[in-house]
Amino acid sequence: MTPPTKAFAVLAVAAGLVLGFAGAAGAAPGGTSFGFAHRAVVGSDGQVFRLKLAATPTVLPAAGGTVDVAGTGYNRGQGIFLAFCVIPDGVKVGDPSTYTSLPTPCLPGREEQDGSSRRITDSGTGTPGITLPYQAGGSFLTTLNLRPEIKDGVVCDVDVKCAIVTRADFTATADRSYDQYIPVSFAR
What is the pTM of this model? Predict the structure, then answer.
């Protein structure tokens, strides 16, 4: 699912500006509702991938809403999951050395119309509407539909802190090098 052209243009411009200033994940300069994350990953062949992830808005209404998400620089040889998950205990967003636990639980979403998670891969396999191919430069652009109850009885901003995350897909579940976090909050 691709957001409208206007959303793409806004996200692309914002991502370029914010990622140019970014030192860690967080809100954009000026307090706008925009999040970003970045890190460098060294592939098994020694190639360096400069992963950049951006999302807007990162403050949603109490009931939830739709977030535009863009990524670039990802390793096209490694599929990723893009999801909304609980930030694990011990993780300091923006400090990849603390990314030692699998982000979980995540907002479930298996239906195309639900749109709460995506798999990005060039493998040619997956569920239509949920699985998307990488674009040039290991990039992707999509939307996620988020709600605060991440699982039955567990509510973001009440019981746990939550974030839009990327992580290696099921072909490398234990690989934490593709983990990135953009915290999201809900108005109360």
Answer: 0.84
